[in-house]
Design goal:
mainly alpha, three-stranded antiparallel β-sheet, two-stranded antiparallel sheet, about 50% helix
């Protein structure tokens, strides 16, 4: 920690912060794909005096929002003096626990599959984490909901991945095009056809990437790799398919080197 503090003490100007943010965005850590997102993460790194790799264990971006994982929230709760005693952690229908805050207030809480269905977060697809690891999914929801109620200081200013995933995408306002002068002869422009061509090309690339990953039997490995980089969060059912188009294209174009460096370890 001492080295980190000394390093950050030297970053006392905007260009230094932008340089760190640019490096974070280029690496794809935290799910960043724009320099300004990297700057936000860089500022958080400096504020907490933590290296980016250390921060990636706790934070990442979901739909442009800084989020904090449920396991990180629970760790902070326990460091603050809180306690948690779980019930049957293998139960696939309901997870329960007893939370004790630093003031010795006790809370018996639970979260069930029915709660998840009522909240609209349950997914019955075979590949969904709700089918593979339902107990872990319920515990994550239980932790985030309970700590937001009894220890909001743990999550002040950040969202849980589950909350951020439910936000509506905000579309930037688009300026209206200036009217064009009428022409004596009609110009045959076909924007719809062009859009369809681009869309078909993107679909073909995605299908080819799907095939490459399927043939390599690497679905889980690819997802785990990008989750370790903070680019996706499997707790909210994200997969490599949720990566930005640019990253998907990069993965497709560099599949052989990615396969050699990551999948053969």
């Amino acid at each position: 920690m001492k080295n980190e503090i000394q390093t950050y003490e030297k970053m006392n100007d905007l260009p230094s912060v932008q340089a760190l943010g640019g490096a974070i965005a280029t690496s794809g850590m935290f799910g960043c794909d724009r320099p300004e997102q990297g700057v936000i993460i860089a500022l958080q790194c400096i504020a907490e005096n933590k290296a980016p790799l250390e921060m990636a264990k706790n934070y990442h971006l979901v739909k442009g929002k800084l989020t904090k994982r449920a396991d990180s929230m629970l760790a902070d709760f326990k460091r603050s003096g809180g306690k948690i005693k779980w019930g049957d952690i293998k139960n696939r229908e309901v997870q329960s626990g007893t939370f004790t805050d630093p003031d010795d207030n006790v809370y018996d809480v639970s979260y069930s599959i029915d709660d998840a269905k009522a909240a609209g977060v349950y997914n019955n697809k075979a590949e969904s984490p709700w089918q593979k690891t339902p107990a872990a999914m319920m515990r994550a929801r239980l932790v985030s909901e309970t700590l937001r109620a009894i220890a909001p200081e743990i999550v002040t200013g950040v969202y849980t991945p589950e909350e951020a995933a439910q936000f509506d995408d905000i579309q930037p306002a688009q300026s209206k095009p200036e009217p064009k002068l009428a022409q004596s002869e009609p110009v045959q422009a076909q924007p719809i056809l062009e859009a369809e061509t681009v869309e078909d090309t993107e679909k073909i690339s995605t299908k080819k990437l799907e095939r490459l990953i399927f043939d390599a039997k690497a679905e889980d490995q690819v997802n785990k790799y990008f989750e370790s980089k903070g680019a996706i969060d499997q707790l909210i059912e994200q997969t490599w398919r949720d990566l930005p188009d640019a990253k998907l294209q990069h993965l497709f174009d560099n599949w052989k080197s990615f396969k050699s460096a990551v999948l053969t370890k």
